[in-house]
Amino acid sequence: MKMEVYLDNAATTKPCSEAVAAAVEAMTEKYGNPSSLHRSGLNAQLLVDDTRKALASAIGAESENIYFTSGATESNNLALRGASAAYGRKRKKIVISAVEHASVEETATDLERNGFEIVRVSPREDGRYYAADFVNACGDDTCLVSMMYVNNETGYILPVKETFSALKRKYPDIVTHTDCVQAFMKLPVKVNALCADLISLSGHKIHGGKGVGALYIRKGIRVLPVVTGGKQEKGIRSGTEGVPMIAAFGAAVKKLSPTISERYEKVMALKSYLLAKLGSIDGVVINSPEDGSPYVVNISAEGKRSEIMLHFLESKEIYVSSGSACSKGQQSGVLGQFGIKDKLADSALRISMTAETKEAELDIFCEALSEGMGKLRG
Fold this sequence. Notes:
The chain is α/β, with parallel strands linked by helices. The chain has helices at residues 17-28, 39-59, 72-87, 102-113, 131-137, 160-170, 191-194, 243-256, 260-278, 306-314, 334-337, 342-345, 359-375, and strands at residues 5-6, 66-69, 93-97, 117-121, 142-146, 175-179, 198-202, 213-217, 284-286, 296-301, 318-319, 348-352. It folds into 2 domains: 5-14 and 259-375, Alpha-Beta Complex (Aspartate Aminotransferase, domain 1), CATH 3.90.1150.10; 17-257, Type I PLP-dependent aspartate aminotransferase-like (Major domain) (Aspartate Aminotransferase, domain 2). It has 13 helices and 12 strands. It is globular.
């Protein structure tokens, strides 16, 4: 019997038992509408409030500054569209990194079509980002800077703290936003340490459920709503809250928060083990930086197209990806920004782990990858 090997955790994670139990309770026992004024509604509202407190505590914020959304894509849209609508009448420049998730890049492109100047900062020739490049791209005409914390395709850790702290010293009125989807519950994410005004979070990347995210909005920062209707989430994000997934989100945060450092060290050891195994396979090139997040490892199987290798591995019930799940297999251009040549980008695979990943699973993956390198034509 084949052993399923799931190594696509940057796309989504398996919900933990605590998250599943919390969602079931919300669906079967506390299923009221949190806006209703009776006891059933109050019970649902208490679940929402409990998760809001858990998220706030995890990032060193006040619970009143946490707003629930349908996911990080909506959180990123709300951050960029909402902040630019609030501050962009006279300040029409927005600065982002050139390696952002599609939900930031495509939103910025849409704002560009509607009169905003978008400056995309690329890594330097050494493949690294520097705070000075973002600061130099800004001016008195800049309303917003958006920079992801951990790149979802390579695991590269961007200098968010250094950049935002430098920006706040020189341009205190610029709003700072960071997409922390691949960092939350893996690296320390604290609002004051990062000097972030807006932070996007996701539930299904941390063993919660799909369909829920959150946006932290620092007190005093104006964000105009994108979704209007009722007055849920203090009018910032209208629509009946998805209580089951919100409850699952909170349960996952409460489970993972105490063990961030412990799990990081475990995944670091798994990454070292994986890299050692990959080093013995001819034609495998490591694209991820040594000091990147250990949760994401990007490689190239030289001469073998990503799609062909991916489906070969799939036939053995081994699941990896060729990049961001949101790109549906299309190249995003992120690898090129990091200096990875087209031929290597065409053969890129992303292996993403959790603390529950086993060395035996990495053994199976490496054995199959080695077999594919020998059998497949490309």
